[in-house]
Specification:
mainly alpha
Amino acid sequence: MSETENPKSHPTSNAVKDPSDWTTGGEPMTGAQASYLKTLSEEAHEEFDGDLTKGDASKKIDELQDKTGRGK
C-alpha cells in the first residue's frame, strides 16, 4: 500500500462527512447527542425530539447551533 492509499496518512480526510452518508446514521442518537440537542432545543425554544437517528440528530444540532449562535 502506498502512502497515498494509507488512510492513516490523512486521518482527517473524511472527518467531515454528510450525516446522510454515515453507515451508522440510521441508528438511535447517542446519549451525548441527546443531551446536547435537549440543551440546544431549550435555548432555541423548540420542542426536543428524542426519537431522532444519529444522522438526523447531527443535522438538527447543526441547525440549532446556527439558530442559537452556539458552536462558533
